[in-house]
Amino acid sequence: QWQLVESGGGLVQPGGSLRLSCVASGLMLNSYDVGWFRQVPGKQREGVSCVTWNGEGEYYLESMKGRLAISREDTQNTVHLWLTDPKPEDTADYFCAAVHSISRTCQLSTSYYDYWGRGTPVTVSS
How far apart are CA 61 and CA 28, in angstroms? Predict the structure, then answer.
């Protein structure tokens, strides 16, 4: 049985930094594109970053470029997302998602992904 579990959320001060992690079980992430999404209550889920199965493609939400970094740790079946200089408007639930892929690109669309975690809340506040 597969599972994606996010961790690393919580309260972070503006201007700090945050690392979110997505650990998979029942899936070998080295064959999956992995995406990170966020959602604020009452709004649509928004893709912020993704990485291809082989790590050769990384994509970021344009408005957050320069503050995000995504990386794979395949030996741990984990994908990390770093957020630097967080702002109050980054407050949201953050989700990871995966899709089996051999593509050269990944997508920031929710419809692209088949597997989802339950999310981890991030609150940016002083």
Answer: 25
Q: Number of H helices and number of E strands within the chain? A: 0, 11
Q: Strand 120-124 to strand 92-100: parallel, antiparallel, or no bridges (unpaired)?
A: antiparallel
| Cβ-based neighbour number of residue 104 at 10 Å | 10
> Are the C-beta atoms of residues 48 and 64 closer than 8 Å to each other?
yes
Q: How many residues appear in the chain?
A: 126
pLDDT tens, position by position, 46-60: 999 999 999 999 999
- What is the average per-residue pLDDT within 87-116? 97
Provide the Cα torsion 68, 69, 70, 73; round to 10°: -140
